[in-house]
Amino acid sequence: MKKRNKIHKNVKKFIFVPVIMSLAMCLLTIAISFPTISDALSIGDMFLSDKQVDYSKSFENIFVPTTNNSDTINASDVEFPSVDKQFGELKIANRDVSAKLFFGDGKVPLRNGAGVYAGSFIPGYGKTILVAGHNNTYFNGLKNVKKGDIVKIGTSYGNYEYKITDTKIYNADNKKAYDLSRNEENLILYTCYPFDMLGITEKRFFVYAEKLSGPKIVGLYE
């Protein structure tokens, strides 16, 4: 009986314990690696999958082209877009930049066009408009822009033009790349850099532009 117990203990010691430890290490490795694995699968799905989610059917379009050329427009006449709604279009002539313009910069906007960061402003508010787009799709043409080029934004309440004044490259986490507290209307477009690179990059390419024309929204605080 004692011999049998000793054999049983040895089996547990030399077989079961190593197996359990190996399983525990495998689970720990998977847990630690999950974010990386998840990112890799997500990127792979975005660029390689034949069964991508069709985000084009997941948004509402409130953009209706207008010929309004007035200097001002009352805030009560402006439908402020909610997240993932298309409220305009953005174009840079002869630079291969033409995109639907959305409010928000999540999956739906960036799969279908360009998106205004929800912490910034829409055209006409006299503040900073921060717009994102993918470097290998709708904003790939930003690599062709030059100082003096005109960015045109059409909305349902007015048409806007911005003149490009500068371009710069910053690290993705550099908050000095934009100023959301400016009290002058300005437009900032940005995308991942280098251009044509797939996946997440460490740098961003910024395009800066100043407002030339377009109605100012008045009566905001009345």
Question: What's the gist of this structure?
Answer:
The chain has two helices and ten strands, in the order H-E-E-E-H-E-E-E-E-E-E-E.
Commentary on this structure:
This protein is of the alpha/beta class and 222 residues long. It contains two helices and ten strands, in the order H-E-E-E-H-E-E-E-E-E-E-E. The protein has helices at residues 2-48, 107-112; strands at residues 72-74, 86-92, 97-103, 113-116, 128-132, 150-155, 159-171, 186-193, 203-213, 216-218. The chain has an eight-stranded mixed barrel. Strands 1-10 form a two-stranded parallel ribbon. Strand 3, helix 2 and strand 4 (113-116) form a beta-alpha-beta unit. The radius of gyration is 26 Å and the shape is globular. It starts with a helix and ends with a strand. Residues 26-51 have low confidence and may be disordered.
Shape: globular
Strand content: 25-35%
Q: Output the structural class.
A: alpha/beta
**Number of H/I helices:** 2
Helix content: 10-25%
Number of beta strands = 10
* Main beta-sheet annotation: 8 strands, mixed, barrel
How are helices and strands ordered from N to C?
Answer: HEEEHEEEEEEE
Distance between the termini: 92 Å
What is the radius of gyration computed over CA atoms, rounded to a whole number of angstroms?
26 Å
Instruction: Calculate the mean pLDDT score and round it.
Output: 83
Q: Low-confidence spans: pLDDT under 50, at least 5 residues?
A: 26-51
Strand ordering within the main sheet: 2-3-4-5-8-9-7-6
